[in-house]
Amino acid sequence: MERQELTPKQREMVEFIRRFLDERGYPPSVRDIRDECRMSSTSVVAYNLEILKNKGYLEKKGPGIPRVSRGIRLTAHSLSGGTLAVPVIGLIAAGQPIPVPDADTWDTTASAETIGVTADLTRGRKDVYALKVKGQSMIDALINDGDTVLMQYTNVVENGETAAVWLKDRKEATLKKVYYEPDRDSPAGGRGRIRLQPANTQMEPILVRPEDVEIQGKVIAVIRQLA
């Protein structure tokens, strides 16, 4: 797509959105843009966002920019640092676990859908993939239903990290904070179970044996989608 000329204010908006994405992993809201770029109203911001979309600098999801401000993303030719195409390989439950076809099919080469993210967001990490979130159990960690999480594939996470977990006995996957709890009956205090903790005070943790758990990756960023 041929690059089209922007006004100084529109160029400032693009630069702010880029910085915000790099620092936080999700786009700014309309009010964030209004305040940072010193614009008169959210309607003026929405008008200029629509122009940026029509000129090929932005992509968006949803029926209208004002209502899905965090659903926008910069296109490749608007990013001086370039973008990476990250495969979206499936759906992950942030609630009660849901079945997925097969843990072995979580292969980045098998995805037909991709999402463009800045290279700074992945920071040179290898084996990065994305999952769409279903459920409300991680809302206190700012991971909502409909968001997309960027994951780095790993089989090991630290205590308290948020991970995609494959439950072998249930053949289900879930997104939770992982805590290793010692066996209180063991003199050595070994790891007796794993607690998969939701970030929602209304929901109970899932308690599982270590042999029934396979870590599929840890969350490195969240791309928010507000309806």
What are the key terms here?
Arc Repressor Mutant, subunit A, Umud Fragment, subunit A, 2 domains, 10-stranded mixed sheet, two-stranded antiparallel ribbon, 18% helix
Explain how this protein is built.
The protein has helices at 8-24, 30-36, 42-54, 119-122; strands spanning 58-59, 73-74, 83-93, 98-99, 113-118, 128-134, 148-152, 162-167, 172-182, 191-197, 206-208, 213-223. The chain is α+β, with helices and mostly antiparallel strands and 227 residues long. It has two domains: 8-78, Arc Repressor Mutant, subunit A, CATH 1.10.10; 83-223, Umud Fragment, subunit A. Strands 3, 4, 5, 6, 7, 8, 9, 10, 11 and 12 form a ten-stranded mixed beta sheet that branches. It has a two-stranded antiparallel sheet with strand order 1-2. A hairpin with a 4-residue loop joins strand 8 and strand 9 (172-182). It is elongated and about 65 Å long. The two termini are 29 Å apart. The model is unreliable at 62-69 (pLDDT under 50).
Q: Concise description?
A:
The protein is an alpha+beta fold and about 230 residues long.
Helix content: 10-25%
Oligomer: single chain
For the sheet with most strands, the description reads: 10 strands, mixed
CATH class of the largest domain: Mainly Beta
Structural class by sheet pairing and helices: alpha+beta
CATH architecture of the largest domain: Ribbon
Let me know the number of strands: 12
- Please indicate the percent range of residues in DSSP E strands (runs of 2 or more): 25-35%
Order of helices and strands: HHHEEEEEHEEEEEEE
